Structure prediction request, 79 residues.
Amino acid sequence: MHPGDDLATIIEVAKLALDLPEHQRATLAANLLESLPPILSDEDEDIAEAMRRDGEIDADPNQAISLAQVDSQIQGRRG
Prediction:
């Protein structure tokens, strides 16, 4: 296998993943992130806050907002 083959596989997997519905992409992203070794310490306040919010969204997925909604809110603040 050549190094270029790995890149081609990654590109193909990314294309397939981006075609998934938003919820399935989020689940895939979460699973991929969980498969990586931790980079930051759990004692980090930001990590603790992110974990708390993740738990809230797991408990009530209706709390989540889409990337388009985030973009809209940012644009509203700039305007």
